Amino acid sequence: MKGLLLAGGFATRLRPLSCSKPKLLFPVVGVPLIDLMLTWLKSGGIDETILAVNHLSEKLRMEIGEERLGSKVLFSVEREPLGTAGPIRLAREMLGTGGSFIVVNGDIVSDVDLAEMVKAHQDHSAIATVALVSAKDPRQYGSVTMTRDGLISKFEEKKPGRVRSGRINAGVYVLSPDVLDYIPDGGAASLERDAFPKLAEKGLIRGWKHHGYWYDIGRISEYRRANMELLGGSQMRESEGKRNDLRDGKAIPPLHVGNSARLGRKVQLGPNCILSERVTVGDRSKVRNSIVFEDTTIGNECALDGTLVGERVAIGNRSKIGRGTIIAGEISLPDGSVVKPGSVILS
User: Fold this and answer.
1) pTM, two decimal places
2) What is the model's pLDDT at position 235?
3) Both ends of the chain: CA-CA distance in Å?
4) CB 3 within 8 A of CB 43
5) What is the architecture of the domain spanning 235-345?
6) Topology of 3-219 in CATH?
C-alpha cells in the first residue's frame, strides 16, 4: 500500500513558527513530525509515502530527501493549495490503481492502528473508511454520525450550538481507487464536503473508532499541549549522558534533551522542558515549561518559562523571556533582552 500525507496548506495557525519552517519538520518531543508519521505509516504496512506539499516545498525536499527511515518518499507539489481531495486527484498516477491507499492530514499525531483499520476496510469492501475519535467539544471540528452497523450517515460542519455526535473525523482515511470518481475535476476540493457526503448517501463510507491518543497540532495551543502531554505521559527521554552533561546543574522531569545538545555549568532544566537537537544552553540559565527547536543557542544567565522558540534562534546573555512568548525561527536577541509575557517576536 501507499500513503499520502496532506501537507499543502500554509500552516497559518502555526505562525510565526511556520514562516520559516514547514509543518512536517516541527519537532514533537524533539523528533521531527515527518519522522513520527513515516514510522507510524510503516507500522501499517506503508513503505512508500507521497507528500502533497505547497508551502516551503523545496525546503522540505532538501531536508527529507527521497528516502527516510527506510521509506521511499515522493513529492506531489501543488501550485496552489488544493484542499483535502484535490491532492488525491493530483497524485492519482503516483497512487496507481493497484488497491487501497491511506490518506492522512499532515498535522496529526496519533497511534491509530493503521493495520487494523486497513483490515476493517477490506473486510467490508468499503470505498472509504474514516477514523473517528471522541472530542469533548466537537463544534470546532465538525461531527460525524454513524449507524449501528458502522456506516457513516452524516457529516456536520463546524458550527456553534448543539451537535448530534461527539465523534469527529480524525483526518485518517483508508480509500479505494473508486473514491476518485467522487472528487470533482479542477481546483481545490474537499473530501469532507465534496466526496464523503455523496458516499454516505449511497452507504459506501464506514467509520472506524479509535480509542488511543490523537492530536491535531495545526494550532499553536494544540501543538504545545501535544508536546507536553506526550512528554509527561511517556516520561521521555532524558539519557544518563545528558544528566551527566549538566555539570552541577539541576534536571526536573519530565524533560527531553536532544542529541548533540550542549549544556553549560549550573543549568536548570524542567519541569516540562523540551530541547530539540543541537540546542546550546549557557551557564546558569534556566529553561522550564518551554519547547526549543533545533540549532538554537540560549546564552548565559537566561531565564525562559513557558516559551516557544523556533529554529536557529540566538538569545543573548542575561535575557529574560516572559511566559507565553513565541519567538520565530532564525532570529537573534541581543544581550540583556527583556521580553514581556505573551509577546510574539518576528524577524
Assistant:
1) 0.90
2) 41
3) 42
4) no
5) 3 Solenoid (2.160)
6) Spore Coat Polysaccharide Biosynthesis Protein SpsA; Chain A (3.90.550)
